């Protein structure tokens, strides 16, 4: 009986250590990209609810393409996203989001886009099932 009790205590300690490890691992996954003050897209969805691979955040360059095709800078295997769905372009110090005539459209802050729109810190961007938050410390 004492062996069973000892085994249960070790099992409990192992379970607690595993939970601590998972919590620490999650903290590091939610860190923003380590590229200074460069704007990025932060995933709002929970990754485990999507049936395709998606990162927690994506850094933005002067021109960032988004779509299902491997030629894009941000590849999202969502069946509701076009192969070349949208792009984000830096122009005159401001990032602009442009839908590339995708079949299901691109949404910003809940409204379907009809043309290029400037992005501001905190804007919500939706492509198919995926929703991102635009994060920038630029004014």
From TrEMBL:
Keyword terms, alphabetized: Membrane, Transmembrane, Transmembrane helix
Domain FHA: residue ranges: 64-113
Keyword Isomerase found: no
Entry-linked Gene3D superfamilies: 2.60.200.20
Domain of life: Bacteria
Ranges annotated as spanning the membrane: 6-28
Pfam family, one: FHA
Family matches, as PANTHER family: NUCLEAR INHIBITOR OF PROTEIN PHOSPHATASE-1 (PTHR23308)
Protein name (record): FHA domain-containing protein
Species whose genome carries this gene: Formimonas warabiya
